[in-house]
Amino acid sequence: MKVTAAQLAALLNGSVEGNPDTFVTRPMRIEEAQPGDFAFLDNPKYEHFAYSTQASVLMVSRQFTPTQPVQATLLRVDDVRGALAVLLAQFSATDTAAPEISAQAAVHSSASVGEGTSIGAFVVLEADVRIGNHCTIYPQVFIGKGSVIGDHTVLHPGVKVYHHTQVGAHCTLHANAVIGADGFGYAPLPDGGWQKVPHVGNVVIGNRVDIGANTCIDRAAMGSTYIHDGVIMDNLVHIAHNVEVGQNTAMAAQVGVAGSAKIGPNCQLGGQTGIAGHISLAKGTRTQAQSGLGSTIKEEGTAVFGSPAIPYNDYVRAYIVFKDLPTLAKKVRALEKAEPK
Asked: Does residue 320 sit in helix, strand or coil?
């Protein structure tokens, strides 16, 4: 893709300082950019790169005030991060699979495939599957009996969708995600063994949901496991049976949510956060990485840290003391020895 600074400004409702005819062909990190590249600056701690970057065009906020000469043509915008998302979508690969069903796909006679949808090689569509319009189903995807995939949804190679799963429109499921496997439900037996509890529910995924590679979302024992609209999940997330994840919640890699937990809308869960079963997190809850939550959070917008997690600021203050405990212990022992007998 080859585009001028003026064309970028028109796309982003920005303004140009420098040569509006400067062209770029790819986005690049500010510290690595070369002539012909486009870069951005949104964090003040990287400002020094603005004066040394070789990028031809540098996107900055309207408030940015250089303290040294900048060689790049400046593209000023209101929101650098938001503009970057728009730009990267323009620069991203536009090649899409042809809207056809591969001769190597196995499509049941009762399955239906919408207009403009691509079905890759070795895809399996079982009975009564319904695929919407303009979807892309990459090779080696399995979609079980009675499942529904909404319009404009993309399933990357190796995705496995078990029976009677519902996936909304404009969703993306990355490679090897498994949707609808049985939950971890077993009853103890008198002899010390385990009796499997059948899971007869399903998984319901809303619209505009992004699910990372190797993520697993289990079907409900009864009823549904719900992932609401706008949820984003990183790679290797695990959602257990009968969990509900609220609208626009974000989960970083290796988050694990135990059965029947309820995650409110607009939550942000740091990597490796663990959430116990049958608890609820209020709207806007935020967890630092590796936090462990064993009890319900009722207050909206709460930030927690640690395992078991406590309020974020309390944990930070406690950690300052904790890391100094060896020194404090020596001081206490010295004071004890110094006390008159």
From this structure: helix
Distance (Å, whole) CA 270 – CA 232: 12
Pairing of strands 186-188, 224-227: unpaired
Residue 190, both tokens: 């008198």
Q: With contact defined as beta carbons under 8 Å apart, do 23 and 38 qualify?
A: no
| Whether residue 81 is found in the same domain as residue 122 | no
Same domain as 178, residue 298: yes
- Write down the pTM of the prediction: 0.83
pLDDT 10s digits, 62-118:
999 999 999 999 999 999 999 999 988 877 755 566 789 999 999 999 999 999 999
- In this structure, the answer to whether residues 82 and 111 fall within a common structural domain is no
Locate 153 and state its tokens. 């949804």
Q: Which burial class, exposed, middle or buried, applies to 245 when counting CB atoms under 10 A from its CB (0-12, 13-18, 19+)?
A: buried
Contact between residue 8 and residue 87 where contact means Cβ atoms under 8 Å apart: yes
The domain in which residue 296 lies consists of 106-316
Domain tally for the chain? 2
Angle at 284 between CA 278 and CA 290, to 5 degrees: 65
The pLDDT, as a whole number, for residue 317 is 87
What is the reported pLDDT for 95? 54
The b-or-e profile of 20-43 (16+ CB within 10 A means b, else e) is bebbbeebbebeebeebbbbbbbe
Q: Which amino acid is at 327?
A: T
Cβ pair 246, 208 in contact under 8 A: no
The structure tokens listed for 243 are 């969990």
DSSP-based three-state secondary structure for 59: strand
Active-site residue identified among 134, 228, 241, 278: 241
Helix (H) or strand (E) holding 321: helix 312-322
Check if 174 is active-site. no
117 plus 37 within the same structural domain: no
| C-beta separation of 139 from 122 below 8 A | yes
Residue found by looking up tokens 């609820």 in the block: 280
